Q: What sequence folds into this?
């Protein structure tokens, strides 16, 4: 079990810190709402990954091409929608009203929806951790539980660290905060366009 736990810790940390639309969304929300309001969004993978893992293990490496293309296109459009929202907040930035009154639950569900329609988790669990989980579970369910525990433990801690770092950066002043918000909007737009390009050119 220890081997699977260590693998889970490594893969969970890698999945959390590699740049991507989910991480960029968390950063943009932190810059607008603060770390306290954004922190619940780290649990989005726990909400969505259960069905994703079950689906991937059921049809491991046999997802039809049209479904992967659909995921890329849907993810790209949704990320562009989030980028538009970040851009609007950048344009109308008011340092005296930077902390939005949006319920924490809405932030969590927006993050969960992004994770659910993003191809990343499907590809990651299909090509990387899915086969390891399947092998470990067949040998002993405790191995599979060790992998999942290590993976999500490392991921949640790493995502929390990212949010806290940018929550601190938010205190550097309105100019820095607005600049970082603009960068996050551009990054989200770039990820969205990239996902659309992958969807259009896939297969």
A:
């Amino acid at each position: 079990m220890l081997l699977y736990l260590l693998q889970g810790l490594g893969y969970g940390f890698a999945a959390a810190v590699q740049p991507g639309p989910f991480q960029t969304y968390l950063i943009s929300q932190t810059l607008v709402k603060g770390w306290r309001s954004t922190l619940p969004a780290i649990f989005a993978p726990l909400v969505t990954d259960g069905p994703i893992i079950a689906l991937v293990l059921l049809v491991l490496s046999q997802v039809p091409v049209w479904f992967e293309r659909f995921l890329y296109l849907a993810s790209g459009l949704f990320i562009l929608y989030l980028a538009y929202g970040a851009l609007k907040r950048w344009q109308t930035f008011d340092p005296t009203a930077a902390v939005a009154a949006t319920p924490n639950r809405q932030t969590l569900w927006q993050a969960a929806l992004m994770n659910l329609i993003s191809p990343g988790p499907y590809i990651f669990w299909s090509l990387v951790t899915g086969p390891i989980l399947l092998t470990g579970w067949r040998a002993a369910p405790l191995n599979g539980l060790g992998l999942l525990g290590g993976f999500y433990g490392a991921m949640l801690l790493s995502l929390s660290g990212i949010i806290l770092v940018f929550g601190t950066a938010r205190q550097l002043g309105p100019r820095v905060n607005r600049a970082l918000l603009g960068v996050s909007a551009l990054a989200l737009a770039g990820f969205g366009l990239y996902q659309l390009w992958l969807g259009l050119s896939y297969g």
Q: What stands out?
A: The CA atoms of residues 94 and 158 lie 30 Å apart. The chain has nine helices and no strands. The two ends are 38 Å apart (CA to CA).
